[in-house]
Amino acid sequence: MLVDASEGPLAQTKFVLGKALARGLCPIVVLNKVDRPAASPERCALTESALLDLFLSLGASDAQLEFPVLYASAK
C-alpha cells in the first residue's frame, strides 16, 4: 500500500486497506516521497502512527498489525 509520507493516510487509503484486511491480506506499507522537505523523520513517524491507528480501527488481526514499512522516493 503506497502512502505519501507527508500527507499520511487519505480516504482512499482507508478504503483500499479495508478491502485488503477483509480478504485476510497482510499489506506492505510503502511511505513514498520521503526525500521531500515536508517528509521529516518526525512526520514519517506520525504517518506510521496514523497508519497503525487506521489498521486498528479497521479490525486488523495481530498478524496484519505486524506490517512492514518501506521508505521510498519514486524518482
Task: Provide a concise account of the structure shown.
This protein is of the alpha/beta class and 75 residues long. The protein has two helices and three strands. 13% of the residues are buried.
List strands and helices in order, with pairings:
Elements: E1 2-4, H1 11-22, E2 29-32, H2 41-57, E3 69-71
Parallel strand pairs: 1-2, 2-3
Q: What is the overall silhouette?
A: elongated
Radius of gyration: 12 Å
- Which strand-content bin applies to the residues? 5-15%
What is the level 1 CATH name? Alpha Beta
Kindly report how far apart the N and C termini lie. Answer: 18 Å
Q: Provide the domain count.
A: 1
Name the average pLDDT: 96
Based on the structure, what is the oligomeric state of the protein chains? single chain
Got a strand count? Answer: 3
What structural class results from the helix and strand content?
A: alpha/beta
Please bin the fraction of helical residues: 25-40%
Could you give the order of the helices and strands? EHEHE
Q: Characterize the main sheet.
A: 3 strands, parallel
The tally of helices reads 2
